[in-house]
Amino acid sequence: MTKFIHTSDWQLGMTRRFLGDGAHELYDQARFDAIRAIGGLAEAERCDFVVVAGDVFESNRIGRKTLLRALEALRQVPVPVYLLPGNHDPLAEGSVYRSRRFADNKPDNVTVLADPAPLTVSTGVEVTGAPWRSKRPARNPVLDLLDALEPAGGALRVCVAHGGVLGPFNPGDECAIPVDALEQAVRDGKIHYVALGDRHSGEQLDSAGRVWYSGTPEVVAFNEVNPGFVNVVDLDHDRAAVRRERIGAWRFEEIELRNLLGGDDLAGFFAQLSAHPSKDTTAVRLKLSGTLGVEDMEALGRRIEDFRDLFASFEVEEDIRLNFGDRPDADENLGGFGAAAAAELRDRIAAGGVDAPAAQDALLLLFRLAREEAR
Amino acid sequence: MKLVRLRIANFRGVRKAEVNFAGQGVTLVQGSNETGKTSLKDSIRLLFKYKDNSAHADIRDLRPVGEDVGPEIELEARAGDLWFVYRKVFLKDRKTELRLLGPEEKRLAGTPAHEEAERILNESLDRDLWDALGVDQGEGALQPDLAGCKPLMEALDRASGGGGAYDGLAESLFGKVRQEYLKYYTPTGKEGRDLVLSAATFERVAFSERTLGEAVRALEDQAARTENLRKTLVDMHGRRAELSKERDRRRAELDIVERLEREIADGGLELMAAAGQLAAAERLIRERDRLIGEEKGIAEELDAVNGTLAPIAAKASDSEARLGAARSRLEETKTARDLADLTFRLRHRDSEYYDDLLRLDSMKKRKTRFDESLRRAEIAAEELDRNPVTRELVERIAKGELEVAKLEGRLEAENPRVRVRGLGDGRIVLNGEDVIAPAGEPLVYPVRGDMRIVVPGKVEIVVEAGTVSPDLAKTLENAGIELAALLAAGRVSGLEAAYAALDRREKAVAALANHDQIAAECLADLSYGELTARIESLEKTLPAYPENRGDLCEMASGLDAARKARDEAEKEFRDTDLEYVKARDAHDSARESHETLRRSQVDGVAEAGVLRKRLDRIVERLNAARAEVPDETLEDAFRAAEDKAKRHDDRLKARTASLAEKDPENVRLLFNTSVESLDSLLERQKAAEKELVGLESAMEATGDRGVFEELQEAAAATETARLADRALRRRAEAARLLHETVARHRDRMRKRYVLPLKNEVERLGRMIFGSTFKVTIDDADLSITDRTLEGRTVAFRQLSGGAKEQLALVYRAACSTMAGVAAPPVILDDALGYTDPQRLLAMGAVLAKVARETQVVIFTCIPDRYRNIGDARIVELP
Question: Is the reported ipTM for this assembly greater than 0.85?
Fold first, then answer.
C-alpha cells in the first residue's frame, strides 16, 4: 500500500483582477504557502509522495520570479513531487518545464511527468502521467496512455491525468475524458487510482472512489465549489481511502441579497459581514437588489465603503430603487427651487427611463448636500 | 435693526466722534473732510466682524499714528424688542462688552459677548443685504449683487405671488451643488481634471494591456512556430532518411549505368584500335596492290610507246620527202614572182615618165599664161596709180563744168567774147597756151580779164576785160578755180579727159580682177615658185630617163603603150605572186607535218626511256617488299584484323543496346534529383534549426520577463481603472444632472422675481427720470442691464457716471422698500457726487420714501445735496 497527496490546479502566476495591489501580494504569497502547507501535510501524514495533476502554472509564460518562488516552495516539500503538465502549462514548445531556468533550479525531489511510461516511485508503487503536449490535443492524452498501458501486475499504479470529464454539458468534447474508460482501466488492473486535475472543485467521479478531482488547494475563482483542499489518498489493491484536507486560507465569496425592502434586511447581513473572521483573505462579490429608503440607501453606501477597506476585495453590483414612502422625509432640508428640483428628479426615477439611475444618484447627492448645508 | 447711537474713539485720525441716529427717517451726518464720517460708517462693520484680539490689518490700521491707545467702538442699537449697547476696544486694553438694556438687562463680556452680538445681528438683519444696500465713498455708481440676499429674495418671492420658491437654504444649497458640479466639470461645462485624468489613466493601462496582449500573442505565435519547427524537423529527419535511401538506390543504378558506359567507352577504344589495325593491314595490301598495278601499268605503257615509234618513223621519212618537193616549188614560184615584180615596177615607171612629160608641158603653158596676165596686171596697176579719177570726181567735174558753163554763159552774155577762127592750120597762144585754132567754126573766148592772144611770131593781141559784172566774174573765177582744182585732182584737162580717164581706170580695175582669176586657174594649189621649181625639176630629170631605165624590157613608146605594158606587167606579177603564195602555204604545211612527226618521234623515244627507268625502279621496290613480306602474309594479316574489328564492334553494339535499355539519362536525372532533394532538405533543415535556436532564445528572454503575468497585472489594472472611471463618471453624472436640474429651477424662480423688482425700480425711478423711465432686469443676477428714457434704450454700462449713480441708488432703494421691515439700515457715504441739482431734488424724495420704512444714514460733507429729503435729523460733526 501507499499513501500520497493528490492535488492540482495551482495555477501559479495567475492574477485576479478584483484584488488590489496589497491584497494581491497576500494572495500570491498564500498560493506559494499552500505548497509548503502541502509539504507539511505530507510529512504529517507520512505520505510517500505528492502528485500534482496539471496546471501547476497558469501559463508557460510565467515570469522568472514566479517560477523561482514555486521551485523554492517545492524544494521545501519533504517527499517526491510529481508534476503533470496540463492544458495551461503543456509540455509544448516554450514550455516552462523545458526552460533552462526550470532545469537549472529544479529541486531533486521534483519530477515532471513528461512521459507516460510508469515510474516506480517506491517499492511496488508506480506513477504514470498523461502530460498535455499542447493546449488543444486531438484527444485527451490519458486515453492514449490507457490504450498503451499493460496491467500493473503486482504494483500499485497511480495514474495522473488532466482535463474535463465527458458529461451532459460537453458531449463530443474530444479533450474530455469518459469516466467509464478510467473505471474500466481500474477494473482491468492497469491503474488503481486516477488523480485528476482541471476542475477546481474536488469531486469523486466513480463509485469505487478511485477516480477523483482534487480541486485547487487555494481558491482562484468565485464559482468554485469547495476549493482549498487536497486529497490525502491511502491506496491499496483492495481499497482506496480519500480524505479531503483543507489547505487554502483564502475565500472568494459570492453573496446575493434579493428583494431588499428596508434597513432591517441589511442590518443582519452587515452584522454577519462585520463578524467575518478573515476579511483580509476574503474577496466578496455582493449582488444587491430591491428597494430602500433614502437613509438606508445612504447607510448602505457608507457600509460598503467600510467593507471595501476591510476585505481583500469587495465588489458590489446593486440594483436598488429609492423608496420615498408616503412622506418624503428626505426633503425636510429642502425648500424653494431645491425642493422643486428634488421633485423633478423623483419623477424621473419613477418614470424609470434610461436616466433613472443617474437621477437617483443625483437625488441622493442632493439629499446629502442639503443635509450638510442644514448642519 | 435700528441704529440708535454710535461712538468711536482713538479711531484712525479721529480722537472722538459720536452720532445719535434718528429713530425713523433719515439721519444726515455732515462734516468737513476728515471729521470722521467714513470712520463712523466703517466702525459698525468692524465692530461686528472682528474680535477684540484680532490682529487683522483692518484692525491694525485703526490705531492712530504715534499713539499707544486702543481704538474703541460703541454702538447702541435696537433689534426687534432687543435694546443693546455693544462696545469693543482693540489692540490695547482690549475689551468686548455687550450690555442688553431690554427687554431684560444683561451684561456679557469677551467671546460670549461677541458671539451673542453676532447672533443678534444675524437674526435681525441680512448681512449681505446690509452690505449691499450701503454705499461707500466712490462706489455709488456700482450695482450691488443682491441675488443672494435672503430678505430681498423673500420679498420678491412674496411679490411674485409667493409659493415659497425662494429658499435661503436652497440658495446656499445651490452653491454647494455648483461646488459639487465643479469637482467634475469646468465652469464652461467641459470635463474637469479628474474625469480627464481618469479617462487618460484608463486609456494608458488599457494600452499597456493591449501592448502586453500583443507581446503574449507574439510569444504564443513564437511557441506555435517553434512547435511547428520541431515537428517539421522531425518530419525532415524522416524525410532525410528516405531521401538518403532513395539517393543510395539511385546511386547503385547509376553505378551500373556508369560501368556500362565505361565498358562502352573501353570497347569503343578497342574497336578503334582494331579498326586502326585493320586499316593498317588494308593500307599495306593496297600499297602492294598499287605497286603491282603500277608495274603493270608502266610495262603496258612502255609497250604502247614502243608500238607507236616505228610508224612515226616511216611517216617522218615520207613527210621529209614531201617537204623537199614543197621547198623546190617554193623557190621556183618565188623567182617567177620576183621577176614579174621587177618588170611591173619598170613598166610603171615608164608610164609615169610619159605622164610627167605631159605634165611638164601643161605646167609650162600655165606659167606662160600667168606671166602674161601678170604683166597686164602690172600695167593696170600703174594706170591706177596714175589715174585718180573716180566716177564721183567725174560727176563733180561735170557739175563744175556745167556751173562754169552756166556762169560763162551768163558772163558771156554780159562780157565780151573773143572769137578766134583759124584760117589755116595756125597755131596761136592764148593766154600763154598753145591753141590750135581750127578752121571753120571759130573758137569763142569770153573776156573776163586781160586776154593775151599771141600768134606766134606774128602778133600779140591783148584783150582787156571790162568791168561789166565783177561779181559774176568773181563767181565764175571761183567756179573756174574750183573746177581747175577738180581737174588738177583728176589730173585731167577737162571733162572729156576725165571721162576718158575714168574709162581707163575702170578698165585697169577690170584687168586687175581678171589677173586674180587667171592666177587662180594657172597656179591652182601651187605657188608660182613651186610651179617654176617643178618645171625646172622635170626639165632636168625627164630627158635622162630613157637612157637610165635599164634594159630589162623594151620601153614602150608613148603613154598609152606604156600604160598598157604596165597593166600587163601588173597582171603577170599578180599571177606569179599567187603561185608563190600557194607554194609557200604548201611548204609551210609540209614543214609543220614533218616537224610534228619529228617531235612525236623524239618524244616517243624519250618517253620510252623514262618509262623504262620507272619500270626498273618499281620492279626493284616490289621485289624488295615481297622479299620482306610476301603478298600472302599481307592478306592473312588483313583478314585477322578484319575479324578482330568485327568482334569488337559486335560486343560494343551489344553493350550499347544494354545501356540504352537502362535509360541512362533518366537514371542520371533521378540520381541528381535525389541528391538535390537531399541537399535542399539539408539546407531547409539547417535554416529551421537556426530559426528554432533563435526562437528559443527569444522565447526564453521574453519568458523571463514574465510577460504573461505582466499582462494579467495590466488587465487587472485596466479593470480597476475601468471600475474607478465608471464610478467617477457615475458620481460626475449625478453631480451634473443635479446641477443642471437645480440651476434650471433656480433660474425659473429668478425669472419670476424679475417683474416685481422691475416694477419697484421703475416706480421709484420715475420720480427722478420721468414717466417714460423703464429698465430691464437680468434673470440671473437681478441687476439692471439697461435703461429706457423717451423710448431710447441705453445699456447700464454705457450710462454717464451721474445716471449710473442715480440708477444704482434707485435700485438699492427699490430693494430696500421691497425688503420692507426686514431691510437693514441704509448707510450712504457721500453718495450722489455726480448728480445734478435737479436730480438731487428728486433723489431726496426717493430717499425720503425709503426712509419711511427703513433707517437711512447719510454721511456727507456737502449737506446741500440732501436738503430735499425732508424730515431728516442733521448731525454736525465738529
Answer: no
